[in-house]
Write a structure and sequence with these properties.
alpha/beta
């Protein structure tokens, strides 16, 4: 039986659910000057290598959501990678202005944090975005394609469409705003992850005490976030929700994005049982970008849900390293796309 929230909080592993990873650099970057700001964005850099990885969280996410990837890239290989994590405006330690948010504005925030760090060269940024973070990554790449070394879109969409039927779609939208008990909140979030992963033993390394299952550790992370009354606010969540709900990249915009970034530099990943941003969104996104026939790389994870960096941590790391190595071999200036048969990538 999964542990209840009250049991998780009392479990000895609860105190260590957020890794104690010391950043190479941390601080606040003032963004949106002339765009309603300035607002302070809280960021950390882990590692000091020449390959700059920009990790963009999804709706309601805190920067430490990427802690496993920080460990795998920024701490296990610090001489190779520099990993940027940050709280999008509205969440965590960043400012939470009450105003209309958009994925385009969040993308500009991200670029300004990168510029604050001096990450401004051509093909300098390996951008990874999950869910709403993938939408922000699309906007970033659309407006500054020359700065993109690679673009990884995880469990994301060009726009949110109804793939379930009108009544269910409407009910799900309304339920986001309905107050719920903490038990129900945690169960709702866990419903977006595959049962196979949730029920597997917690094998997170480096701790003297582990939870019984992955699901318990996942729930513990959510509880940590929701107990942070200053970092996780209803207003901040709603502002980000509006940004995600109104995100749209048209087929023509996606085509331009693919051409200007270079389709060989783009990969999209999705789980087949993702019930938050459903699988048909991947096909629409992929088709707009130019498809596999145009050079975009697609990875489909059978039986996996929305949180692929958790559910497929080792494989995700391998695929990221494959992409980074591949694009490092590409010229900074290249044709619109490189046919996929000329690129040695091992698909799933």
């Amino acid at each position: 039986m999964p542990l209840r929230p009250a049991e998780i909080i009392q479990h000895p592993a609860f105190e260590n659910v957020i890794y104690d990873l010391q950043p190479t650099n941390k601080g606040f970057a003032a963004v949106a000057i002339g765009r309603g700001g300035p607002f302070n964005i809280s960021y950390e850099v882990h590692g000091s290598g020449p390959k700059h990885l920009v990790w963009i969280t999804g709706l309601g996410g805190f920067k430490w959501y990427w802690q496993r990837q920080l460990k795998d890239f920024g701490h296990a290989q610090p001489e190779k990678y520099s990993c940027l994590i940050f709280d999008n405006r509205g969440m965590g330690e960043s400012d939470k202005p009450v105003m209309r948010y958009s994925t385009s504005e969040l993308a500009k925030d991200t670029l300004e944090v990168c510029s604050h760090l001096g990450w401004t060269n051509k093909r300098d940024l390996h951008v990874i975005g999950i869910s709403m973070g993938g939408m922000v990554a699309q906007e970033l790449a659309f407006h500054e394609p020359d700065r993109i070394a690679s673009l990884t879109l995880l469990s994301s969409a060009a726009e949110i469409i109804n793939t379930r039927g009108y009544i269910e779609h409407l009910r799900n939208r309304i339920n986001i705003l309905v107050p719920k008990s903490i038990d129900t909140q945690i169960n709702d979030v866990k419903s977006h992850v595959s049962d196979a992963w949730l029920s597997a033993p917690d094998v997170d390394k480096g701790f003297t005490t582990n939870f019984p299952t992955n699901g318990d550790r996942f729930a513990a992370q959510e509880l940590k976030k929701r107990r942070d009354a200053k970092g996780f606010t209803r207003t901040g969540f709603l502002c980000q929700l509006i940004a995600a709900a109104y995100h749209r990249k048209s087929p023509e915009q996606l085509r331009q994005l693919g051409e200007r970034v270079g389709r060989a530099r783009i990969q999209a990943m999705h789980g087949t049982i993702d019930n938050l941003i459903t699988f048909p969104h991947l096909e629409i996104l992929l088709r707009g970008l130019g498809g596999e026939e145009g050079g975009v790389t697609k990875y489909v994870f059978e039986g996996r849900g929305h949180y692929l960096p958790l559910e497929e941590r080792e494989e995700f790391q391998r695929l990221m390293e494959v992409m980074i190595e591949k694009v490092e071999a590409l010229p900074v200036e290249e044709p619109d796309f490189l046919p996929i048969e000329k690129i040695e990538v091992e698909n799933l």
